[in-house]
Amino acid sequence: MPNLLVGEKHLKSIFQKGQLLYFQKDEIILPASDIATHFYWIESGLIRSFVITPSGERNVYVIYKHQEFFPWWLFKNTGHTNIGLFYEAKTRVSLRKVSKDSILDAMNKDPHLSYAVLQQVLRFTEVFGILIKSRGYRLVRDRVRYYLYFLASRYGRYRRESGEIFIDAPITHQDIASSLGTTRETVTREIQSLIRENIIDQEGHFIVVKDYKKLKLVFDE
User: CA 142, CA 193: separation in Å to the nearest integer?
Assistant: First the structure.
């Protein structure tokens, strides 16, 4: 039976042999118009994927983190044509670049590696499902709460002394608005409301969840 830990170790080992690249904050790594032939492994930093809507606005899809790789759609796209996504450095990042063929060849020979890749792709699929669900709430207030709940589960670091959850990613109000299909001003208003309710707080560019139970209460009703 495939072992996930073994597979993840093998996956990291393959990417460690790849070309090391550095990108500055807001630098485009993979434009939507490019033909992709390589996967990118994140050694440090955060990567933001987004599309440009017909009205010219950004619609943020996923923010990738340390030890994740992209673009996952390259597995199902034999022509290597981008599906319309931009990939941009949200922070200063270091990446490892490995060809699609190298990854596929290794997967054909290593069931542990194939299992690890499958699990990561499934996690991305789950993230997209959560984003779709968050847009299903009628009230923006509930959309913002659900999205913060998602951020806490994906990027959160638990603080044992205080019981708080520190969202270890500099997510801006504009990022949240772009993901939820609303305006930055609306998100800011809802964030301020949650701060007044002592459910969350802000530490610089980071969000801290002070009362996780209250944050997710609306989803338990």
Answer: 12
Sign of CA dihedral 199, 204, 207, 210: negative
CATH class entry, domain 4-133: mainly beta
Helices (H) and strands (E) in the chain, counts: 8, 12
Task: For residue 49, count other CB atoms closer than 10 A to its CB.
Answer: 22
Q: What residue segments make up the domains of the chain, in order of their start? A: 4-133, 137-220
The whole-model pTM stands at: 0.84
C-beta neighbour count of 112 within 10 angstroms? 19
Same topology for domains 4-133 and 137-220, yes or no?
A: no
% of the chain beyond a pLDDT of 90 = 54
Using only the alpha carbons of the chain, give its radius of gyration: 18
Query: Could you tell me if residue 26 is left (phi over 0), alpha (psi between -120 and 50 degrees) or otherwise beta?
Result: left
Tokens matching residue 189 = 């208003």
With beta carbons less than 8 A apart as the criterion, state whether 114 and 105 touch. no
All residue ranges of the chain with pLDDT < 70 are 77-83, 218-221
Mean per-residue pLDDT over the chain, rounded: 88
User: How far is Cα 163 from Cα 166, in angstroms, rounded to an integer?
Assistant: 10
Residue 111, SS3? helix
CATH 1.10.10.10 matches 137-220: yes
60 near 84, Cβ under 8 Å?
no
